[in-house]
Amino acid sequence: MIRRYKTNLTPKECRARIRENVDLITVGFYEKFLGWTLLNLFLISYRSGRIRFRDPIFNKIIGTIRRKNGVTYVCFMKFRGLTDPLSLLLVFLGSYFITWIETEGQLQAMQVAGLSLLCCLFVGLLTFVFTSLLIEGQEGEERLVDFIEGLLELERL
């Protein structure tokens, strides 16, 4: 579901606030918001800082910032698990090349693509279920939405 907001900030100020308060790349296990902004698009993910190897939890927001009739609008969509388009594309490409290299070209391209799609389905479903059902995933989603609403001073439409 797409959430729509308006703000008193300009798109340039919104992008600047995102760049200042969100890390592009970090190392370490501590609570953080990771993301980037490019033109009018932004992606922000939340990491709780807990070391989790058995329960993959991912919360992300992908959104746009636009100005119309002197008012700045921010729209974003929440994603649970690795279900956002960018993550699915990266999982597909990674599994495609790994499968292609491991089979040494014995499979046809369509067979490798089919296996890669199954991998995307499995990874997306697994991470979606863990993020949706575990308390840490639900809390992370709330923290992420509260963070972006406070950062950009958003008012719900």
Q: In which range does the helix fraction lie?
A: 40-55%
Sheet/helix structural class:
alpha+beta
Strand content: 25-35%
Overall mean pLDDT? 91
Number of strands: 6
Described by strand count, sense and barrel closure, the largest sheet is:
6 strands, antiparallel
Q: C-alpha Rg, in Å?
A: 18 Å
* Helical run tally: 4
What is the first-to-last residue Cα distance?
14 Å
Strands of the biggest beta sheet: in what spatial order?
2-3-4-5-1-6
Number of domains: 1
What gross morphology would you assign? globular
Low-confidence stretches: none
| Pattern of helices and strands | EHEEEEHHHE
Characterise this structure.
With 157 residues, this protein is an alpha+beta fold. It has one domain (2-156). The protein has helices at residues 11-21, 85-102, 109-133, 135-151; strands spanning 2-7, 32-38, 41-47, 59-68, 71-80, 155-156. Strands 2-3-4-5-1-6 form a six-stranded antiparallel beta sheet. The relative contact order is 0.20. The model has no long low-confidence stretch (mean pLDDT 91).
Notable features of this structure?
single chain, 157 residues, alpha+beta, 6-stranded antiparallel β-sheet, 4 helices, transmembrane helix, transmembrane, membrane
Give me a quick take on this structure.
The protein has 157 residues and is α+β, with helices and mostly antiparallel strands.
Topology (elements, then pairings):
Layout: E1 2-7, H1 11-21, E2 32-38, E3 41-47, E4 59-68, E5 71-80, H2 85-102, H3 109-133, H4 135-151, E6 155-156
Antiparallel strand pairs: 1-5, 1-6, 2-3, 3-4, 4-5
Helix pairs in contact: 2-3, 3-4
Keywords: Membrane, Transmembrane, Transmembrane helix
Transmembrane segments: 86-103, 115-135
